[in-house]
Amino acid sequence: MTEYPQLWGGLECTVNRVHEHYGDQIRLSGHQDRLEDLDRFAELGIKAIRYPVLWERTSPDHPDQCDWAWSDQRLSRLRELGVRVIAGLIHHGSGPRYTSLVSDNFAEGLATHARHVAERYPWIEDWTPVNEPLTTARFSALYGHWYPHLRSERDFWLALLNQVDATRLSMRAIRRINPAARLIQTDDLGRTYATAALRDQATFDNMRRWTGWDLLCGKIDRSDPFWKRIAAFGLEHRLQTILDDPCPPDVIGINHYLTSDRFLDHRLQRYPRHLHGGSETQLYADVEAVRVLDPPSQGLEGAIREAWERYRLPVAITEVHNGCTREEQLRWMAQAWDVATRLNDQRVPVEAVTIWSLLGSTGWNTLLTRPGVYEPGVWDVSSGQPRPTAMASLVKALATKAARPPVTTEAGWWHRPVRMVHPPVQRPAPITQHIAGSRGPTSPRPLLICGATGTLGQAMARACSLRNIPFILTSRQDLDLSDRASIGAALERLRPWAVVNAAGWVRVDEAETEESACMLANALGAIALAEACEREGIPTLSFSSDLVFDGTKGSAYVESDAVSPCNSYGRSKAQMEAGIAELSGQHLIARTAAFFSPYDQYNFATAVVSALARGEEFHAASDLVVSPTYVPHLVTASLDLLIDGEAGLWHLTNGQALSWADFAKSIAEICGHDPSRVHAVAHHAFGWPAPRPANVALATAQGPQLPSLLSAMEHFAQHFREQSMQNAA
């Protein structure tokens, strides 16, 4: 007997059309040209993979003109690797240019494609002809986001019926070739909650969410309230055809996200304007239920129970993803696995949990309507080459029942007070029935952060508090980097799973006359800490500086460039890097530059804002080029890399090089001050004792890790705007 749940994998493979442009996630992730990705996937221990053989890609010009070169090579390799294929034929798409979701030829056209695929690959047994038909109909024909950009209820129902017919006809064609073929029908499944004034809208939404599966199962007949509603649009004959020849799924595939459960509130004044919307008869705010309901919504477990009770068909979690910091991704995946395991123990058959998305996804923050941000998955492909994240370790642990990464066991943000971003709305339901057993045991091992008084140490502690990563922040009294005995005693006493060294000498000019003290703090102490951690098998994260370079390269420095510091501070950091590089353990060093943060009154950007706010002029160097780095972004990225188990040198900045004077002007402007009051001068005018390199712009060969500098400065400015509003109040 097969043991459930299984681990499946999922590749974000959407090919959707927006006006005349087709977006292709397979190309955006680079998987188009990397056959070796399949071996990476198989090494995770997954039993099956949702894999694209998409109509738009195979037959873009004519239904009988099929290009099999790409899929032949990849499906053959998956078969060799022993990974079962769940073939997807349309993924949030509307078909090639010769059809659309509302065209008469859509269903027959996809069935023709399905026949071609089944004839080519008769060994494939699992199929999802159309991914998320209800969601795609909403986004394409009700909300107008995707092609054919329609916005009417009739077009919505027509698009849904066409996709249901396409699924029925496709499975009929496939089963003529392989009678054992299974239909795994996916859709997003959440629940809508609402204030009493909007109970009718919530009821409608909660009934409509089932209609794709209901149609396939033959559950919508003349007694169903949706029969009359759909028939009123002249579509009764379509309903009858489906009812006469249904195609029940073999597995109900549930795609559930933290945003799937919604809350509707008629009290618009409680929410930002961008959340306001409504129907033809009522205005309301539509928000994530997890952000407002207390206790929270029923979540994934409730969705699975509802699907099982409605259909009594096996269930699979076919998408589970959280675009968030790394530990929150881990927690969401682990929770999904634990929910599936628990429900199977309670005789609710959950066949699988699908790791989604293996290579991440791009643009879902804009609903694929325009360029958007990239969210890593099990691999991070932002550098152009897949880099395994901590998700890979977790997936392998789930497959083998091994120990999970340490940060996985803490409660996710959706179970913590930080989840609430709107005035709470009380929901009269016991929370235990929805999240019982969702939390694992508390990790006994903290993250150790050295440097209690510094900017980085405080920022690290703040980030860990927000991310629910247990930590201990130590001062020199707790752990003295100049005393090896103190280091050893602290490690033995605290037993951390990793150590962040955010301590050290930061006064660049004073280092010229106190080089020994600077070297002790930044190099010798840091190396001693890394050596002690290596003996205990503990990973470390240390921070270095752009000042390890002399600024004469003439272009941005990358990780592989040779160091050549021109001042004492730079020499201390270079010696630290060299000493740690000689060790064989898991040691990560983040080179960064030009810190700025709204939480530290002594950094350059804060000094600019403070001076201009006092009505003063500000002078900044015009002949020194740096790569400013926003501290909250730095700690987020470096913590993710630490959790991922990365090592070696990484350049972490916000990706733009400019002079200190230009940086000051940009900060002034974005914070609402007059940039003409910033005066550009040569750096020699400041009389600094320590030599400064002319151009130490940092770039990275590891792939972008931090948001843009513009985004960083906007976050910085928002803090001061909020502070001004609080002071005014």
Automatic annotation (TrEMBL):
Transmembrane segments: none annotated. Pathway: Carbohydrate biosynthesis; dTDP-L-rhamnose biosynthesis. This is dTDP-4-dehydrorhamnose reductase. Its EC number is 1.1.1.133. Signal peptide: none annotated. The keyword NADP applies. InterPro entries: dTDP_dehydrorham_reduct, GH, NAD(P)-bd_dom_sf, RmlD-like-bd. Belongs to the dTDP-4-dehydrorhamnose reductase family. Binds 1 Mg(2+) ion per monomer. It comes from Sphingobium agri. Its cofactor is Mg(2+). It comes from the Bacteria. Residues 447-702 form the RmlD-like substrate binding domain. It is an enzyme of class 1 (oxidoreductase). Coiled coil: none annotated. Catalyzes the reduction of dTDP-6-deoxy-L-lyxo-4-hexulose to yield dTDP-L-rhamnose.
